[in-house]
Amino acid sequence: MIPWAGSTTTPNLRGVNLVRTYGDGTARRAALRDVSVDLFPGQIVLLMGPSGSGKSTLLAILSGLLEPDTGQVLADDDGTLRDVWAMTDQEREAYRRRHTGFIFQGYNLFPALTARQQLEIVLKWGEGADSADARRRADEMLDRLGLEKNKNKKPAQLSGGEKQRVAIGRALVKNPSFMFADEPTSALDWENGQKVIELLRDAAHQRGASVLCVSHDHRILPFVDVYYHLEDGHLERRPLPTD
């Protein structure tokens, strides 16, 4: 692995003593049990574990989408480390818009927008990019994802794998500081899945993003820098395979 040239020993995102439970009474279940994790600029981190182990819960908490029962999420916000869950709703929304990209399992595309427009709206709304710049950057990203022939198609006209790639492009196009990917290769064949993982790795190694990827796909392991396993609410760092 070639690390980002600006690699640092200082984390830019910290989850501290995170607890999250679901249900009530005898049905109460702990998804996260006092979990702590640090993410660093220039690293791609893989989080694995059984279905229902809390992986998506941890991803949502760290990205500012789901509030923990207790614990902190400390994130670099324009040079200042701030607790994401101590922000007001407006501050947290602004932070997420400026700094984070999220790849959802369910795509979450706008039905009325074309593939190109899905990316353009992120750049215009999130960065204030003008129309020409937004179109250029959207087209470049779609080309990299092999979607050059699908730019003017709406979600109903796309296959599941194509929709997944549009969703990935939407998250990557604004070059976020933090990238959160929930099963990014689940709807893709390995040729396209590998392209996606390489893009996520480039976001880390070339642009210094902190990338956290949740997956069941062991083929991703050779592409990542750090590997965690989450099970029964407990997080464990594990060594990467050597072969």
UniProtKB/TrEMBL annotation:
UniProt xrefs under InterPro entries: AAA+_ATPase, ABC_transporter-like_ATP-bd, ABC_transporter-like_CS, ABC_transpr_LolD-like, MacB-like_ATP-bd, P-loop_NTPase
CDD domains: ABC_MJ0796_LolCDE_FtsE
Swiss-Prot/TrEMBL keywords: ATP-binding, Nucleotide-binding, Transport
GO cellular component, one term: plasma membrane
Cross-referenced PROSITE patterns: ABC_TRANSPORTER_1 (PS00211), ABC_TRANSPORTER_2 (PS50893)
GO MF assignments: ATP binding; ATP hydrolysis activity; transmembrane transporter activity
Residue ranges constituting the ABC transporter domain according to the UniProt record: 13-243
Annotated Gene3D superfamilies: P-loop containing nucleotide triphosphate hydrolases
Official protein name in the record: ABC transporter, ATP-binding protein
Species for this entry: Frigoriglobus tundricola
